Amino acid sequence: MNLDFTDEELAFRDEVRAFLAQSLPDDLRRKMIDRRHLEKDDIVRWQRILNARGWATPNWPVEHGGQPWSPAQRYIFQEEMALAHAPEGSPFNVNMIGPIIAKFGTDAQKARFLARIANIDDWWCQGFSEPGAGSDLASLKTRADRDGDEYVINGQKIWTTQAQHADWMFALVRTDSSGRKQQGITFLLIDMNTPGITVRPIETIDGGHDANEVFFDDVRVPVENRIGEEGRGWDYAKHLLGNERSGIARIGLSKERLAQLRRLEVELSADGRLTAGERDRLRRKLAEVEVELRALELTQLRVVAADAGEGGAGAAASILKIKGTELQQRMTELAIELAGPAGLAMPEEEESGAALEDGWIAAAAPFYFSMRKVSIFGGSNEIQKNIIAKAQLGL
C-alpha cells in the first residue's frame, strides 16, 4: 500500500495553499491563531468564500456541488485548511445534514435545502442528545405522534450546540416504542421558528454559550420534512455519525497546535522562564505527542489509501476518533503546563484576544476546558471502544 502522495496530489496541495494564502481573511486567521471565539458571522463569511470557489462541500456528490476529489485530495484539503488556520465552518451544515439529505432525501428536499446549506443561508443544529440519552442515544424519549400530514413533537433535547443561532434542526424522535430501542426512531427536519419550541442557554465553565436545552411543546412538523422512512432514523443517524467521527480526529489541526507548542517552549526557554529540568521534561512530552500524532496520521493515510467506506464509517472512524481526541486533549494539558499558574485564570474575552506572543497564556485555560468535550461528542470514546470490539473482535 503506497502512502506517498503522487505528483498530481502534490500539485493539488500547492493549489489549495495558494488559494488559502490569497483568500483567507487576515482577521479570521488571527482569531484562529489566538484561540478566540468565532462569531456566527465569521463562520458564514468564510463558508461563503469557500462556496464561491466551489470548495464549501467537497465531500458531497458532484451533482449537488461536491468535488470529484480522491480520498487523498480530501485529506490534503482538510490538512491544509488546518495548517493555514482556516475556520472549520459549520459542521452541522456541511458534514452532517448536507450529506444525509443528498443521500436519503427526496428530490424536493434536495432542491429546497442543499444550496442553502452550502451557503449557510440556513444555519442548522443537531437535535440528538437528551437527558438520559447521550452516548446511549437509542434511549431517546422525545415523541413524535402522527396527526394527518403532521407530526406533533413533545420532549427535550440537551447540549444542542449553536441552537440559539439555528434556523433549522435535524432531530431524532421516537415514533414507535413497541420494538427494540433502535427501532421506532424517525429522522425529522424541524423549522426552529415553529411555535412551541423554546431554547434555553447552557453557560459553560469558560463563560461561553454554545450549548443549549431545547424544549418541544406540541410542535407540529410536516410529514414532508421526514428523511427517508418512518422508524428508520437510527440507520440514517449511524451514517451521519460516521461522517462526524471521521472529522473529529482533526489531524491537521493537531499538527498546527503541536507546532505552536514547540514555538512557545523555545520562546519560554530563551527568556529563562523554564528551568533546565522543566525544559527537558516538556520537550520529552512534546516528542511523545509528536510520535503518537505521526502514528495517527499514518493510520488516517492507510484509511485514505484503502478508501475505507463512505464517510470513514465503522471501526476505522472510531479508532481515529478515540486517538485524535485524546491527542487534542493532551496538547491542551501541555499548554496549561507551559503557562504555569498564570494559565489557570479565566480571562475576559477582550483579554484573551491578544496576539500569540502576548495572549496565549490567557487562552490556555478556556481552551483546556473547552476541549474536555471532544472525547464525549460524536459518541463518547467508551462507546467507540465497544464499536471497535464488535467490529474487529466480534464481541
Kindly report the spatial arrangement of strands forming the biggest sheet: 1-4-5-8
Provide mean pLDDT, rounded.
Answer: 86
How much of the sequence lies in strands comes to: 5-15%
CATH architecture of the largest domain: Up-down Bundle
Main sheet record = 4 strands, mixed
| CATH homologous group name of the largest domain | Butyryl-CoA Dehydrogenase, subunit A, domain 3
Structural class: alpha+beta
* Series of H and E elements: HHHHHHEEEEEEEEHHHHHHH
Structural shape: globular
Kindly state the percentage of residues in helix.
40-55%
Q: Whole-number radius of gyration?
A: 22 Å
Are there runs of 5+ residues with pLDDT below 50, and where? 308-313, 349-358
Counting DSSP H or I runs of 4 or more residues, the number of helices is: 13
CATH topology of the largest domain: Butyryl-CoA Dehydrogenase, subunit A, domain 3
